Amino acid sequence: MSNLSRRHLILSAAALLAIGAGALVTRSDAESRSGTAIPAPALDETAGAATTEVAVLAGGCFWGVQGVFQHVAGVTSAVSGYAGGAANTAHYETVSTGVTGHAESVQITFDPRRISYGRILQVYFSVAHDPTELNRQGPDIGTQYRSAIFPTDPEQARIAKAYIAQLDSAHVFRSPVVTRIEPDRSFYPAEAYHQDYLTRHPTNPYIAINDMPKIGELQRQFPDLYRADPVLVASASPATR
Description:
globular, Peptide Methionine Sulfoxide Reductase, Chain A
C-alpha cells in the first residue's frame, strides 16, 4: 500500500469516534490556544512598489497548508510541493521515505500591497499548523512533515527569525516553537493529483479531521483575510502554473 493510501485509510480510534459523533478534531495544540489568534509580528516588511512576492512554508501535510492559504485574501497562488532536498528526489513516494531532506511545502505567491509577509507568517503559525510539534504534524510523523520556513531572501529570514523569538519570549504556546529557518532551498511542485486536494476532497476522512477545521479557524480568527472562494491551481492559466 502506498503512503498516499495509508494517509487516507489509517485513522486513530479517537478519530473514528470523532467521525461517528459528527465532531471535527483540529490539531493537538488548539485547546491550549483557546482559539485566540497569536499577535502580529512586531517586525514586518514595508509595502513598496512590488506587486508579487513568494513565500515557501512547510507545516505537515501540504494538503491542509495549501488549502488554508488558498482562502487567504491577497494570495494569488498556492502550490503544493517539496523543499529542502535535491531535484531528483522531489517525488512523493521518495519524499515519503523521510530520508531526502525534503519537507512537504507550499509555495505561496501573494501581493505584498494587500498582505505582508509577516501576516502570511501569522496565519501560518496560528492556523495552518502547530509550530511546536517536532518532525510531525498530527498523525503524520517524519522529517518530511517538519515545521520549516524557506525564506526567499535575507529580509524574509530576518522577519521569520524575529517573529519566532517574539512568540517564544511571549510564551504564546505551551511549548517552544520548533520551526526551522532553511534559506537557499529550491521549491519543486508536487504531482498534479496533490494540487487543490482539500477543495476536491473535503469529505475525505483525513481532510475532514485534520484540515477542514483550519479553514473554519481562518475565517474565525482572520475575517479580514478570509476569502470564501479559494484560488486554485486548476484554474490558473498555463503560464502561471
